[in-house]
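chain below, 200 aa
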Amino acid sequence: MNRSPRSNVRRLALGRLISIAGGGAAYAALNFTVWERTGSPFMQAMSLLLTFGVIGLLGPFAGALGDRFDRRRVMIWSEAAAALFFAAMVFARSPEVLIALAFGSAVAELPFFMASRAAIPSLVERPEDLSWANSLVSMGSHAGIAVGPVLGGLAIAWLAPGSDPTDGQLYAAGALVFGLNAVTFMISLLVTLTVKGRFQ
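prediction:
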């Protein structure tokens, strides 16, 4: 079924919203868990650098993937790989392993963001729609950035209440957030599969 260019852009924006919100929730839960387990400023800094800081470190390299390969395939594989990393975090216990897997997820999801941004001009038919499309996708991204960490913080506060949660509470809370985030990435993948159009 052929969909209008505007419908494709809306779906792309929805996929970005879901991915970024889920990732933000998971990374908020990760940073809380790492701090509670280690109390180390260095470990906290590494957790932040290897998750939220990845776009600054590897953004140009991830963008090159979308320029070299079909952007839709890059987006699909990126979402699938990130979902696998988050699913693996459900079973991790060591803070070091959690950070390593989170770094893998951040690297895996980065090509999706870059390819989806680069695909916008190809999905609109009229030049006058380009500013609308860029604004809508940007709104999806910023909404995800704002909502994701809040959801992650609320989940941790609900599942691991108190000023000194036990390790069991921390792991259970983190595992639930990581698992739900893996599901959100699969939902985003399914949304991406419904986006039709030129991706080169």
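The two ends are 20 Å apart (CA to CA). The CA atoms of residues 122 and 198 lie 6 Å apart.
thats it, cya
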